[in-house]
TrEMBL record:
Signal peptide range: 1-27
Protein name (Swiss-Prot/TrEMBL): ABC transporter substrate-binding protein
Domain Solute-binding protein family: 71-430
Family: Belongs to the bacterial solute-binding protein 5 family.
SUPFAM superfamilies xrefs: Periplasmic binding protein-like II
PANTHER family in the record: D,D-DIPEPTIDE-BINDING PERIPLASMIC PROTEIN DDPA-RELATED (PTHR30290:SF38), PERIPLASMIC BINDING COMPONENT OF ABC TRANSPORTER (PTHR30290)
Swiss-Prot/TrEMBL keywords: Signal
Pfam family, one: SBP_bac_5
Main location: periplasm
Stored InterPro entries: Peptide/Ni-bd, SBP_5, SBP_5_dom
UniProt-annotated location(s): Periplasm
Length: 509
């Protein structure tokens, strides 16, 4: 065998041994993305995770679509009309659309999707309550459907742009087992999934028959890289083209910016961060203690020192992009003397333990939590940090009410409406509210949902934010900019504020 052939055989053996998605150079027309989390299921009714939507926005379509400019535009519906004083919405559907498996998209698919979401299957997932206002779906003809509502919902059109409302193929879902559907999603989006390796990655290929035209990329690969330093190293090595939020530690931003092949895209995001309180038991069941802990922490200093100014302090659990945001609302001040006074008044002994539960793969928030713990130590509390694997924290520890005194909550509020945050965080019985029950707050939350008067509804949402802040249900920390690490070979990529990337117009050199 000639020397050249020996080298070729050796190279082929090395390439065959490389793990999924890891290549020494990018294939032409292929975009590779680092995502920090495997959502575990690709069924739209099973999820609330931004990292699901970062992938699935390319696999599925909804009746409407919200782009990176946050505007709602037609999706599988070409137009819609609000009837019966807001209790019926009629959608004209796009004709000639195919699912990835060849099934036809039509009114039956829309009805099937929502019947499933609002039925027993949807009951198992976290999305059903977002669409509970839908009483039924009526088929007018093959390409016209009515959503009949129990009451008006001013946020419903936006909700139809994401998550549970993504349209699925009836025959495919009916004929296959649930676990198979979870791992092999079929939609009408610009890319179809060709491979899913749990905990490792996903491969998509262009769907040439997409109703919006064939994507400019041939393929997209997502690699699930939970360790931020590894993700950044892969970006620097050219094996990853985009690292999506919230992976990139603030401390590594200068390193990426110094690389002539790379750039940081920083955009205002809807994502807010807080440490929520266990209001059900322990010392944090006392409102005075919760307020003391908030006042013990200099959140502005943390933003400047740890986050490099890439965030804004918040007074309520929402960003300025959220409908219901009150720019006049002020956070509790940093005042350690007052904090000590409140702790003494509440009878909290010096050295009382405080456990803070966080996502173990969020390096930046880990640094923030260390700073928070140090501030709490200054007022006599013994704060310890307990990291969890993200899916364990989100699917078990928080919903089952098994947290310590504080737990990390980061929330995108994907509808850009405070209802989507406040209702899920504060209403009795909701997944993200394992400890608290407040009838007055429940009544406020319920009262705004059917309101058509925009100004009146905004006022109630602001009242809810003030009420939650007065009860100190969480320590509001900051609204963090969405940071994307991007290889400059990527063209036409618009960094969305909410990580919901639509990649059909993206190209690579």
């Amino acid at each position: 065998m000639k020397l050249g052939n020996t080298r070729g055989a050796l190279l082929a053996a090395v390439l065959a041994a490389l793990p999924f998605g890891v290549m020494p150079a990018q294939a032409a027309g292929t975009l590779t993305i680092s995502s920090p989390q495997d959502p575990g299921s690709w069924d739209p009714i099973d999820t609330f995770l931004v990292n699901w939507s970062s992938v699935a926005t390319n696999i599925y379509d909804g009746l409407v679509y919200r782009g990176p400019d946050t505007k709602i535009v037609p999706g599988l519906a070409t137009e819609w009309e609000v009837l019966d004083e807001g209790k019926r919405i009629r959608f004209k559907l796009r004709e000639g659309v195919k699912f990835h498996n060849g099934e036809d998209f039509n009114a039956e698919a829309v009805k099937f999707t929502f019947d499933r979401l609002l039925g027993e299957e949807g009951k198992k997932g976290p999305q059903r309550s977002n669409y509970a206002v839908i009483e039924k779906v009526e088929i007018v003809d093959d390409f016209t459907v009515d959503l009949v509502l129990t009451q008006p919902d001013p946020v419903l059109i936006t909700k139809l742009a994401g998550y549970g409302a993504m349209i699925v193929p009836p025959k495919y879902v009916t004929e296959n087992e649930e676990d198979f559907v979870n791992a092999n999603p079929v939609g009408t989006g610009p890319f179809k999934m060709t491979s899913y390796e749990p905990k490792v990655g996903v491969k998509l290929e262009a769907f040439a028959d997409h109703w919006g035209g064939a994507p400019k990329l041939d393929a997209v690969e997502y690699r699930f890289i939970s360790e931020p330093a590894t993700a950044v190293a892969e970006l620097q090595a050219g094996r990853v083209d985009i690292v999506i939020p919230p992976t990139i530690p603030i401390s590594m931003v200068p390193t990426i910016e110094a690389d002539e092949k790379l750039e940081i895209r920083s955009v205002t995001s809807p994502t807010v961060y807080a440490l929520r309180f266990n209001t059900g038991n322990g010392i944090t069941a006392d409102e005075r203690v919760r307020k003391a802990m908030i006042m013990a922490v200099d959140r502005k200093a943390i933003i400047d020192a740890v986050l490099g100014g890439q965030a804004k302090q918040i007074a309520s659990f929402q960003s300025e992009l959220s409908f219901g945001y009150d720019p006049e609302m002020e956070p509790l001040p940093f005042d350690q003397a007052k904090a000590k006074e409140l702790l003494k008044e509440a009878g909290v002994a010096a050295g009382a333990p405080v456990q803070i539960d966080i996502r173990g793969n969020d390096a930046t928030f880990g640094e923030v939590t260390q700073a928070v713990a140090s501030y709490l130590q200054m007022v006599g509390l013994n704060a310890t940090i307990k990291p969890y694997e993200t899916n364990v924290l989100l699917n078990d520890i928080i919903p089952q009410g098994k947290t310590g005194e504080m737990f990390q909550q980061s929330w995108g509020g994907w509808t850009l409406d405070y209802d989507n945050t406040a209702y899920l965080m504060y209403h009795t019985g909701e997944r993200w509210n394992p400890y608290d029950s407040d009838k007055e707050l429940d009544a406020l939350l319920e009262s705004q949902r059917p309101m058509i008067d925009v100004d009146a509804r905004e006022k109630v949402l602001q009242e809810i934010a003030a009420y939650a802040a007065d009860r100190a249900l969480e320590m509001p920390l900051y609204n963090l900019n969405a940071l994307y690490g991007v290889n400059k070979r990527v063209k036409n990529f618009i960094a969305p504020p909410d990580s919901r990337m639509r990649l059909n117009e993206v190209e690579v050199e």
